[in-house]
Structure formats: C-alpha cells, structure tokens
Design goal:
The complex is a heterodimer.
Chain A lengths: L3 H10 L3 H23 L2 H17 L10 H22 L20 H19 L3 H11 L5 H8 L3 H23 L1
Chain B lengths: L6 H7 L5 H12 L2 H19 L9 H16 L3 H11 L9 H14 L7 H7 L4 H8 L5 H10 L7
Helix pairs in contact in B: 6-9
Classes of the chains: A mainly alpha, B mainly alpha.
Chain lengths: 183, 161
C-alpha cells in the first residue's frame, strides 16, 4: 500500500516539481525539529534538513516506494545526524545543548503554573538531549512521528526487539532523570 | 528512587503487545500498585513528550534551500571527474602527484571503502559524488587508488574521438 507522501515522491520522480514542493512543505518542520533535537544545534539542523531534501531531489530517479515515505525520509535524516555527531565528536566540537528553549504547549493563565510547565518542558528537553543517539531517535520517532516499532526499526536500520529495548531504556532514563530533579 | 521499569509496560503503552500478553499484564497490574504507578509515570512522560513544541526552522529556510539546490544542481552538471578533482583539490588533497597528502588520502579512502562507519571529514565530500562510474573506478581492484588520484590530477577529461 503506497501512502500519499510516497505517491508525491513518485510524481516528482516522474517530473512533477510541484510534488516536491508539497513534500518540502510537509516535511520541513518535522525534519528540522527531529534533527534539532538529534544534533542539539539549530544551524546544523538546518543544514542537515537541507541535505535531506537535496538527497531526495537528486536521487529521485532511484526512489522506490518500498516503505512508508516517512520511514524512508527519517532514515536518511537519522543517518545524516549520526554522521554529523560522529564527525563533531571527532573534532571535539562543542555542541549547543541549550541552544533552544521549549515553551509550554498550552500556556496557563496562572503565572506560577506557566513557570512550572516551562521548567518541566526545559527539564524534559535537557533530559532528552542526554540520551544516547539511537535511544533519542527512537523516542522522537515514536513520540512525534507516531511510528510503530517496525517503522522505527526500518528508519534506524535495526530490528523490532532492538527498538523495543531502545524505547524502554530511553523512557527509563528520562523518568530517572526527571525523578531525580523533582527530589 | 525509580524502580527498574518493566520493558513490557513500555510496549503496552505503545500498543505493541500481543492480545495475550496485554491481558496478562493488565491482570498483573490490578494487583500491583507499584507497577500501576510506573504505568502512570510513563503516561505522564508521554504527555510531556507530546507537548514539546516543534523546533521550527528560520523563516528564510525555504529561500536558502532554493539557492543551495540551484548551486548543487549546477555543480552536478559538471562531469564526474571534474567533481572528484575539485573535491580533492578544495580539501588540499591534490597538491602534487605522489605527495604525502595524496598518499594519505588514498590510504584513508581505501580504508573507508572497506568499512561502513561514518566518513572522515576530508572524505565526506567524496561521498557526495553519486556518479556510479566514478565509484566503480575508485573501487575497482585492478587500479591502485593512488594511481587513480594521480591520474585525476593530471587528467583533462575524456577526449573526443
């Protein structure tokens, strides 16, 4: 079963540039957000988001709708993020762990509650940023992209049992960190 | 102190347990207040994750992307051997046939071709060359990589016959 986005990519492969524009609109915010949390650096996230679309554009001739399009495109994004992190680690670059601030999704009218919610969100962002890369990727694909275990496995190039374990360890680590902060 | 989480709770939350496993876990949770608390904690965590805002790109992102795409497409229209040579030259690899830098690059390239780990920065640009002909040549066992790099330095491209 070919999903709607995969159909757009096939249309682009057949020469419809508007289909690429549509995919660009749909995926830019999602990819950028994923990559910003993966590499913890907004300007790098922007470059990597561009890299993903450059690859989609230039490799369209080779595209085949074997999996859901989101799985395909986040697989590319994940590989690019890992390459960047490996390079950054080797170059001993300083990552900008606090380069962005989360805000409460639905601000409360109570300033004390607002502050509390913002603190919780920031604590959560910080806790996510400390997770190992593969745990972080699995968690973000599950929480923000709503991917099933089989889709996450395909995007990360691993097995379903491994995804199950990655998610379990990620959540355990987050709860431990957030619990420690509360106490 | 957080008790060690049961891996099945996480899978349960994601709707990834089979029917029988799910029923067993639900039965167990009815008599296990600590397990039920862990599940509540996981649910709260999921709500927190879902409420995290998207990290939006700069408003000028689309315009910058179009400029870069044009540049990349323009570069892609040049023949592969020029791109290989430019890539090597821009990294200071091709400073003279037989030089130490060339030999080091050839060695690094040979090492990379035999493994799947991320590229070294100096070789990243090479990886962007997507012309299969170029990679076939670089991978071919009957041509020494060092020779390939040296040939590229001196080569003016395919000659019209």
């Amino acid at each position: 079963m070919i999903d709607d986005d995969a159909r757009l990519m096939l249309a682009f492969k057949a020469g419809d540039r508007r289909a690429f524009e549509e995919l660009f609109e749909r995926y830019t915010p999602r990819l950028h957000s994923f990559l910003a949390r993966m590499v913890r650096d907004r300007s790098r996230a922007e470059e990597l988001t561009q890299d993903v679309f450059i690859r989609l554009y230039t490799a369209a001739d080779h595209y085949e709708a074997r999996t859901r399009f989101a799985t395909y495109v986040f697989g590319i994004a994940h590989n690019l993020a890992l390459n960047h992190l490996a390079r950054a680690w080797r170059q001993r670059e300083q990552s900008l762990a606090d380069g962005y601030d989360a805000q409460a999704a639905e601000p409360s009218s109570d300033p004390a509650e607002q502050l509390d919610a913002a603190r919780t969100q920031r604590a959560l962002e910080r806790a996510i940023s400390t997770l190992p890369e593969r745990q972080r990727a699995a968690l973000l694909l599950r929480a923000h992209e709503g991917m099933g275990y089989d889709e996450i496995a395909a995007a990360l190039g691993t097995s379903v049992p491994s995804v199950k374990s990655l998610l379990h360890r990620a959540r355990e680590a987050l709860l431990a960190q957030l619990g420690e902060k509360r106490s | 102190v957080t008790r060690r989480l049961d891996e099945r709770l996480s899978a349960y939350l994601d709707g990834e347990l089979g029917e029988r496993e799910r029923a067993e876990l639900e039965a167990r949770l009815r008599g296990d207040p600590e397990g039920a608390r862990q599940l509540d904690a996981l649910r709260a965590l999921e709500r927190g994750l879902a409420e995290l805002e998207r990290i939006e790109p700069d408003p000028a992102f689309a315009a910058r992307f179009r400029v870069r795409l044009e540049r990349e497409l323009e570069a892609g229209r040049r023949p592969w051997w020029q791109r290989v040579r430019e890539g090597l030259r821009s990294r200071g690899v091709l400073v003279g046939a037989g030089s130490l830098a060339t030999a080091a690059a050839a060695l690094a390239l040979a090492l990379w071709l035999g493994r799947s780990e991320p590229l070294d920065p100096d070789l990243e640009q090479l990886a962007e060359i997507d012309d299969p002909e170029a990679w076939d040549l670089l991978r071919s066992g009957d041509v020494e990589l060092l020779e390939v790099l040296e040939i590229l330095e001196a080569w003016d491209g395919p000659q019209e016959s």
